[in-house]
């Protein structure tokens, strides 16, 4: 991989994440001659790559899906602020999570990548949200316009949906902090599933 953007004003991701995401970076460079920079603007290249490789043999497709998921996770972490958690399964990428700093949300990006590529929902939830904010989040999502199946099963579509989720949950935290006369909490180290 050429000069990587992993350390630009951010802490680098765990080595396992960087190595897996590098597979997606290299694949896009080889196919399109484009350098991915961990911004949401580069996600269409992942979507095109996956579209072209959706029917390749299972092992290759699985690797591309996992690599694209790791890339998506790092893009989310850098865009919204978060921490990778690999502690329960460092050797099993599907269990890796990105926990966001500003809100009680964790995402399993490799699981999302596999779901996008196979167009088959994951067995375990790809998003984990604190139970206390679930109803408000569900209401916000129901108020949005429906998306097509192709958009739903795309990295761009998932990024946009997660942008809405992070914004909604962050605003809920700001409102709660204002009502309780306290600063907003930082959540990155906290498992949202355990927050009541």
Structure write-up:
With 196 residues, this protein is an alpha+beta fold. It has one domain (15-184). Helices cover 51% and strands 7% of the residues. It has a four-stranded antiparallel beta sheet. Strand 2 and strand 3 (105-107) form a beta hairpin.
How widely separated are the two ends?
43 Å
Arithmetic mean of pLDDT: 89
Strand order across the largest sheet:
1-2-3-4
Structural class: alpha+beta
The general outline is globular
Give a quick summary of the entry.
The protein is α+β, with helices and mostly antiparallel strands and 196 residues long. The protein has helices spanning 15-32, 43-53, 58-80, 109-118, 134-142, 149-152, 155-179; strands spanning 82-85, 97-100, 105-107, 127-129. It has one domain.
Detail the topology: elements first, then pairings.
Elements: H1 15-32, H2 43-53, H3 58-80, E1 82-85, E2 97-100, E3 105-107, H4 109-118, E4 127-129, H5 134-142, H6 149-152, H7 155-179
Task: Spell out the key features of this protein.
196 residues; alpha+beta; 4 strands; 7% strand; globular
């Amino acid at each position: 991989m050429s000069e990587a953007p992993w350390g630009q004003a951010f802490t680098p991701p765990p080595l396992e994440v960087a190595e897996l995401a590098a597979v997606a970076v290299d694949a896009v460079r080889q196919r399109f001659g484009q350098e991915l920079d961990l911004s949401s603007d580069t996600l269409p290249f992942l979507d095109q790559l996956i579209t072209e490789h959706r029917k390749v043999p299972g092992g290759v497709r699985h690797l591309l899906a996992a690599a694209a998921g790791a890339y998506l996770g790092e893009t989310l972490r850098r865009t919204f602020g978060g921490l990778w958690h690999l502690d329960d399964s460092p050797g099993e990428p599907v269990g890796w999570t990105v926990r966001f700093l500003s809100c009680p949300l964790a995402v399993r990006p490799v699981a999302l990548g596999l779901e996008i590529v196979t167009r088959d929902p994951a067995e375990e939830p790809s998003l984990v949200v604190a139970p206390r904010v679930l109803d408000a989040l569900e209401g916000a999502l129901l108020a949005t316009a429906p998306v097509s199946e192709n958009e739903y099963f795309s990295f761009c579509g998932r990024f946009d949906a997660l942008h809405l989720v992070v914004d909604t949950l962050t605003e809920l935290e700001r409102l709660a902090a204002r009502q309780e006369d306290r600063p907003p909490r930082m959540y990155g180290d906290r498992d949202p599933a355990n927050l009541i």
